[in-house]
């Protein structure tokens, strides 16, 4: 499960990141809105933790996250003790509201609950079903053998259907240390998708957009 922490308090942000990583979550930490928007543009998150101070809450960010990725859960971590702020957050689309100071055990339980009972991340397009949680692909009732990074590349592109995604964006979204790998790993993953899915099934799931990247284009029959 991938989590984005948006928290201006560096000490709290680092503490939350450490706790989540120790509990097997993949985490990114944004200390300002610029970094937050960068991460949200390049990666898919199961959960976003948003830290609020005592000033006017940024409810627009919640709406933006839900608009672009309605399956992503949002939990607000707020210094504001007022009931009105909690109501405003929940009405804006937040899935939960926790007041600071944060109890780490309670936070972990609330996160587990939201991810367990949240909206399914399963992608269904006509007869193609992609289940990221179980790393499973079903087409016309038959399971397709595609695992590891090729599966993650296919899933990321499917989540951004009809959008052009560059190699750099794929590297940042999927590889933990993208600076340590070369862009040709994307070409290898795409080739495996085409060899294991497209050719045997006589379909096209991903098309190459010259000099720009790749686009998920299913359904598109090979002529």
TrEMBL record:
<feature type="domain" description="OmpR/PhoB-type">
    <location>
        <begin position="120"/>
        <end position="218"/>
    </location>
</feature>
<protein>
    <submittedName>
        <fullName>Chemotaxis protein CheY</fullName>
    </submittedName>
</protein>
<dbReference type="GO" id="GO:0032993">
    <property type="term" value="C:protein-DNA complex"/>
</dbReference>
<keyword id="KW-0238">DNA-binding</keyword>
<dbReference type="Pfam" id="PF00486">
    <property type="entry name" value="Trans_reg_C"/>
</dbReference>
<dbReference type="InterPro" id="IPR011006">
    <property type="entry name" value="CheY-like_superfamily"/>
</dbReference>
<dbReference type="InterPro" id="IPR039420">
    <property type="entry name" value="WalR-like"/>
</dbReference>
<feature type="DNA-binding region" description="OmpR/PhoB-type">
    <location>
        <begin position="120"/>
        <end position="218"/>
    </location>
</feature>
<dbReference type="InterPro" id="IPR036388">
    <property type="entry name" value="WH-like_DNA-bd_sf"/>
</dbReference>
<dbReference type="GO" id="GO:0005829">
    <property type="term" value="C:cytosol"/>
</dbReference>
<dbReference type="Pfam" id="PF00072">
    <property type="entry name" value="Response_reg"/>
</dbReference>
<dbReference type="InterPro" id="IPR001789">
    <property type="entry name" value="Sig_transdc_resp-reg_receiver"/>
</dbReference>
<feature type="domain" description="Response regulatory">
    <location>
        <begin position="2"/>
        <end position="115"/>
    </location>
</feature>
<keyword id="KW-0805">Transcription regulation</keyword>
<keyword id="KW-0804">Transcription</keyword>
<dbReference type="InterPro" id="IPR001867">
    <property type="entry name" value="OmpR/PhoB-type_DNA-bd"/>
</dbReference>
<keyword id="KW-0597">Phosphoprotein</keyword>
<dbReference type="InterPro" id="IPR016032">
    <property type="entry name" value="Sig_transdc_resp-reg_C-effctor"/>
</dbReference>
<dbReference type="GO" id="GO:0006355">
    <property type="term" value="P:regulation of DNA-templated transcription"/>
</dbReference>
<dbReference type="GO" id="GO:0000976">
    <property type="term" value="F:transcription cis-regulatory region binding"/>
</dbReference>
<dbReference type="GO" id="GO:0000156">
    <property type="term" value="F:phosphorelay response regulator activity"/>
</dbReference>
<keyword id="KW-0902">Two-component regulatory system</keyword>
